[in-house]
From TrEMBL, chains A, B:
Regions annotated as coiled coil: 110-140
Gene3D superfamilies: GntR ligand-binding domain-like, Winged helix-like DNA-binding domain superfamily/Winged helix DNA-binding domain
Domain HTH gntR-type: 12-80
A Pfam family annotated for this UniProt entry: GntR
Protein name: GntR family transcriptional regulator, transcriptional repressor for pyruvate dehydrogenase complex
Entry keyword set: Coiled coil, DNA-binding, Pyruvate, Transcription, Transcription regulation
CDD domains (UniProt xref): WHTH_GntR
Keyword Coiled coil included in the entry's annotation: yes
Alphabetical list of PANTHER family matching this protein: TRANSCRIPTIONAL REGULATOR, GNTR FAMILY, UXU OPERON TRANSCRIPTIONAL REGULATOR
Listed GO MF terms: DNA binding; DNA-binding transcription factor activity
Length: 235, 235
DNA sequence: TTTCTTAAATTGGTTAACCAGATTGGTTTT
DNA sequence: AAAACCAATCTGGTTAACCAATTTAAGAAA
């Protein structure tokens, strides 16, 4: 059993450096929204790194909506001003992997909203998808198997029915990490899972009845143990 | 003035196809959490696409936490089960660019939380950063200039002080789009911006006093016009 | 048989050359 | 002078060859 100093992913560090250089370039040249960046070739030459490294850095900044590259044309600064651009890049460079506590805290916040919206807005098709996810979860639990995945898919079905694509996306991004940690720390033991079936069913019924307040209450009940867990785990 | 059928970015479509094929492969081979995918070369050969296309698709899936590639070793399936993996990839493939309405709705949700948390948890340094952002905003407005960026940076400073890295990241991802739309639709006209100064100051004071309830109330006041706007704009 | 050594094969990352479409600037045409 | 044309150039995207670190398995040593 060797003690590892965390590898401190070297590649991430390189990419952050490139992103930082792109920001410096934009500032130095006073590029404004819609302006074109130099070609990938010139940037890579300029920075002394490979073109694919530059491309990856650009892809990351595209993901955050700060750049937009058009084929056979160029890479362009997004329609936000330089102040916001600088502030956001600084924040992106400083970003660290979210801690589990903040993940759970955020999940609760998001889901208390999605469940209300789902009750208000769900279509018949979306309701059916939620029901199918519910049944899949119940079946898995009754057969005595671990059902963390089916649990989360039920919640994702609700997020999808909320009609808010942004929250839906956010739920998607935090779910893998949630599943990993739940499995690792055995947050959802089998005895708890049995209770979970009824709690899920209550949530489903509230959404079916289109009662947002009730849905939120039932979700709160469902999160009760999660609340405690969230505020007791060690950082 | 030509009417454009939206270009329907071809590259995105190709990447989605590759992601779909990766999912199919994982299912066909019944790969489980931690299992290794074939090398990028074999995948690209298998799919009949370039290796860099495969790499980009993998990078996207890495971003969502579904894959993890290790240098000189291989690409591995994340520690989530096949059910969740399939569900999430399906959702990712179906993701569309968030509509403005959902962005604003989500922003309000997130910020009513960050402002409470910031009041509870902010350090002296973070309080000072919020104050600086406030002053920068006020100065810009008083000089009669557009201050959408400084406005959002004030809110981002609060998000940073919330101590919740997940919400902070989410705020970062939606901010550029918010700025773009606010600028485009002139949501924050100059006369409104003047009122905004005092509203910002009220929020700042509540955070300074470490009064989460007051902070939330002041943020609600600040969002009042946004509420209306959010529920009146055309889709 | 088990353990250690070591060299060949495999890996993700990098580099450089190539492609087709977009851009550009000078030329021709009107 | 202004519009239309066209070829040279530049662009992001793709491909293929290369690199160094890692993994592997075959063989030597115990």
């Amino acid at each position: 059993m060797k003690i590892e100093i965390l590898p401190k992913n070297e590649n991430d560090a390189i990419q952050k450096e490139i992103i930082s250089k792109i920001r410096d370039y934009i500032n130095y040249k006073n590029l404004e929204p819609g302006d074109k960046l130099p070609s990938e070739r010139k940037l890579s030459e300029n920075f002394g790194v490979s073109r694919s490294s530059v491309r990856e850095a650009i892809q990351t900044l595209e993901f955050y909506g700060l750049l937009k590259s058009k084929p056979q044309s160029g890479t362009f600064v997004a329609d936000i001003g330089s102040v916001a651009l600088n502030g956001m890049i600084s924040d992106i460079l400083r970003l660290e992997k979210p801690d589990f506590k903040s993940l759970v805290e955020t999940r609760i916040l998001l889901e208390l909203k999605t469940v209300r919206l789902a009750a208000l807005r769900r279509s018949k098709e979306e309701l059916k998808e939620i029901e199918e996810a519910l049944e899949a979860y119940a079946t898995k639990v009754m057969s005595g198997e671990d059902a963390v995945q089916e649990d989360l898919l039920f919640h994702l079905a609700i997020a999808k029915a909320s009609g808010n694509s942004t929250i839906n996306t956010f739920m998607l991004t935090i779910t893998p990490e949630i599943i990993t940690n739940f499995t690792k720390y055995h947050v959802c033991d089998k005895n708890i899972a049995f209770i979970g079936i009824q709690e899920h069913r209550d949530i489903y019924e509230a959404i079916k009845k289109q009662d947002p307040q009730l849905a939120k209450e039932k979700m709160k009940v469902h999160f009760k143990m999660l609340y405690q867990y969230c505020y007791n785990i060690k950082d």
